[in-house]
Amino acid sequence: MPHTMTAPPPAPPTGSGAPPILSIRGLSKSYKDGPRVLDDINLAIEPGEIFALLGPNGAGKTTLISIVCGIVNPGEGEVRVGGYDIVRDYRRTRALIGLVPQELTTDAFETVWATVSFSRGLFGLPPNPAHIETILRQLSLWEKRDAKILTLSGGMKRRVLIAKALSHEPRVLFLDEPTAGVDVRLRQDMWQVVRDLRAGGVTVILTTHYIEEAEEMADRVGVIRGGRIVLVEEKTVLMRKLGRKELVLTLQDRLTAVPPQLAAYDLALSGEGTELTYVYDSQSERPGISRLLEDLAGAGLRLRDVKTRQSTLEDIFVSLVEARA
User: Fold this and answer.
1) Where in the chain is the domain with CATH 3.30.70?
2) 25 with 11: CB under 8 angstroms?
3) Could you tell me where in the chain the CATH 3.40.50.300 domains are found?
């Protein structure tokens, strides 16, 4: 398997003191006569964390996962899982990883029990009915253990894929769009499954188009665009650093326009003339709000309600992608 080394830079620090469970240094990938799909990726994932990788279609998410999981040959750089090189120690590293692909691909005519047990055997492990039972119970599949895959709902089939990926007791679980095509209730159930896996010591790395998924579950967020990691940050820190807050002022009386004496605040009028919105940086200490409230009273405006609204991770992600377009 070809593997060209280019003296990669040190992996980013993980912050917990423990060695990273996944370390990627200087990873680049190109296909023949084509542009670079991945460009100098450096990433360190801590044991036991939930890491969300966000990026638009074609950003390189699937290629990155495929390299780490041994599906696609690496180009330049180094990838280590549990301290082992994915090329020199292929079998050892592959056994440490579970992968749940986006596509619902499994043997439709097999039973749940048979297909999960077979997946364990693919890694050369002896049968362990107690472990398989534990997984199926954790994923609410125990009652369906004798059901054929083709009889299951989409959400249940997704759970079977997770059960297969966990059958050989991996330390790292990759979830590629884990709730694609799943309704809201099942999506929330899947979030709980992921939390339970992390509580059991499994490191979870997920790609998702549902930014609410990353906002709900992730400890850290990475943003990839054009084959490059453009940002890696703790979710709460990211939202504090890059988020904006809005002060929404509900008026007792309808306005047709913002009074001229309030023009400096760049207020937006909405709600059929009954709402004024003031946007400010969340790192600032509520700049100008006290003066704004005084000036509102001076302009003869009476307030019915005042509330603040924080930017969502989706707002931040969109602004990051647009800024780097």
Assistant:
1) 244-312
2) yes
3) 22-239
Contact 40, 228 (CB under 8 A): yes
Q: Using CA of residue 225, residue 228, residue 230, residue 236, what is the dihedral sign?
A: positive
Phi, psi of 226 (to 5 degrees): 60, 30
Task: Give the global pTM.
Answer: 0.73
Residue carrying structure tokens 């409230």: 293
CATH number for the 244-312 domain, one of 3.30.70, 2.60.40, 1.10.8, 3.30.420?
Answer: 3.30.70
> For residue range 141-163, what is the model confidence (pLDDT) as tens digits?
999 999 999 999 888 888 899 99
Helices assigned H by DSSP within 224-312: 235-242, 289-298
pLDDT tens digits for range 301-322: 989 888 877 666 666 666 666 6
The architecture of the domain spanning 22-239 is 3-Layer(aba) Sandwich (3.40)
Indicate the SS3 state at residue 65: helix
Q: Please give the Cα distance from 224 to 231 (Å, whole number).
A: 7
The total of other beta-carbon atoms located within 10 Å of residue 154's CB is: 13
Spans of the chain below 50 pLDDT: 1-14, 285-286
Among 150, 154, 134, residue whose Cα is nearest residue 142: 134
Contact, 210 vs 179, CB < 8 A?
A: yes
